[in-house]
Give the backbone structure.
Amino acid sequence: MVSDKSIIFFDIDGTLLTEEERTLPESTKKAVFKLKELGHEVAISTGRAKFLFEDVRKELEIDTYICYNGQYVVFRGEVIYANKINPQVLDELTAFALNNNHPVVYMNDKKMTTNVPTDHPYIEESISTLKVDAYPVQEQNSTEHSDIYQSLLFNTEGEEKIYQERFTDLDFVRWHPKSSDVLPKGVSKAVGIKKLLEYLDFPPERQYAFGDGLNDIEMLKLVPNSVAMGNALPEVKEAAAYVTKDVSDDGISHGLQLLGLLPEE
């Protein structure tokens, strides 16, 4: 790998896309294409499932990405790492969740399914904020039919504590007031980034990352040149080396200029 080129990891929601409308600012699109034109490697690092950001990947022409919070890694279109959740543990979680009237959604590499009617208000409220066309379908025994890379548990803030105490092999990372990501213990975007960097030869000083949410903290702590968006949570800003403007205020282009990756306009 040419030593003067860098790799830049971008979270999606609240980083590449605006928080409320989930739109891609024109300045962000322009900045990403400029990075690629300069020969840098641009990668997405998201908690979203593979099929929930195809539109973003296509619009930005990015084919290197880490998704399911580090569970699934693709380099230039080729899957180089895929880590599924233990199906037995997932079945135990499902039984416990159903007993508490908490829906569970399962995500493989093509779709998401659920164990309850899809009109459950918690599912509708949280999934709708993603502004995507995909929606869970009700399907029995989802864990028996395909590899599940990530699940979603639907309950209110604080209710995940009983799951954390009972299922010590899993992590529960809240991304919405009514929903948490469910992942194998210790998995994070940082783990996926490490898997990708095993294939590449970018020195630490040529590694960059942008994020705004709780599931970005490990990534921002791992990557030396880390940037929190202006709209990021306080604890996320504390984890980053730099803070840029809000995503809706040209935060990506400003951050890249701050780092010296793009010239100031």
